[in-house]
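Attaching the record inline, Q. Sequence:
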Amino acid sequence: MVKTGMILAILLVTTSCAVNPVTGKKQLMFMSEQQEVQLGAEYDPQVVSTFGEYQHDQLLGFIQARADEMGKVSHRPNLKYHVKILDSPVVNAFAVPGGYVYLTRGILAQFNNEAELVGVLGHEMGHITARHSASQQSKQTIGQLLLIGGMIASEKFAPYAEYAMQGMQLLFLKFSRDNERQADTLGVAYSSLIGYDAGKMADFFQVLEKMSMPEGEGGVPTFLSTHPSPADRYAYVKLEAEKWQANLDNDSWKVNADQYLQMINGIVYGEDPRQGFVEGNTFYHPELKFRYSYPAGWQLQNQPAQVIMAPENGDALLLFTLAGGSSLDEAARTTLKNLELQLLESNQTSVNGLPAIQTLSKQVNQDQATGQEQANIVYSYFISYDGNYYVFHGVTAEADYNTYRNIFKQSMGTFNKLTEASKLNRQPDRIFIKKVQRTGTLAEAFRHYGVKQEQMEKLALLNDLELTGQVQAGKLIKMIGQ
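Structure, as predicted:
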């Protein structure tokens, strides 16, 4: 993986002016194309391990095929584009340098036709072909990188979250309006050149505006927080699409709504409880069959590689993750070594009948702002269960340790086997595609399928339709259920 020092070294030794593939003009660039591709290849497994990859061969195959088509007509036809579907309910798409594009299952559930998907895919590829991400990275200092997982608690505890996430520093950068306008232009061009109605991308942007998405969900940025949207974006994309359609010899522009809806039939919608869910202040994991409680009032972020819990004041961090090793002792030793912790004490113990090791460690860090040394205390429980080794790390400043020690210990002591059938069998919501049975309003179609009144507005937005609008018999619409 790319270490911080390595990135800095690359930036320092490769400062140069390069020709932008899209504009043909020289620009300041700290990395060569080869280094850009290498950086993307280094990030990719870390992105996947952090978010999880959603398995859907048909949908992924379709998206990759469209990326390959647009890649050939793009400004960087020799670059290989790699597409992944991330197992996240958040509505987002992003790209990292070197040809790597990621779409969440959340954004795929929101699309209503192939043209919307291809337009957004082309937009993200535009960020890559114009080297926006590479340029942004070149301008950022390491201290400005956004560490997903460290956002919930004080930055002074980021090394522990960073370790659990294998050191990933993901760049969800806010592009400038000029960058966004250029990516929109390129997205329209690339999707038009392979025969799609690029105007549908504008329709999708309008849907996102209606959704009023927050800056982030579960610590993960949403599309509108990483892609600032100018007020005239809809009109601009529509106009660009019309220009391309007027200039290209094509009598029929692809939208393919039914084909797309049939592809996403059955995909998971919203949070997937199979990957862990919270009720009250207890975290349940049906797949791994464990449960534990965390302090009331603390925030929790559940990610594939870790669970982070913290109080609002950021004075402490409780982190839960897997620990590698061939034995419980080795898992504890290796973890403490990787975190560069000074072991103060270690005790064999048990947690609800499960073998465990409790450790107390110390780490001295230098405060970047003051230059003074600060000591963190790390209270850890390593637990052996069902062939895996799990670890809780309770982290706080040395001065606050007495305040949080019992809180850490009590939470870690609640780890136990999950045997409750109602929790073990919890299933996610899914998108199901249904046919309108009788011509009438969308609300009438929903009522036919037993949709509750309070769910109708949400479903109307998911379908990009109005409740009072007419829908024809046989039209495919999205429903949510199990």
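The first strand starts at residue 16 and ends at 19. Residues 289 and 420 are 9 Å apart (CA to CA).

More tomorrow.
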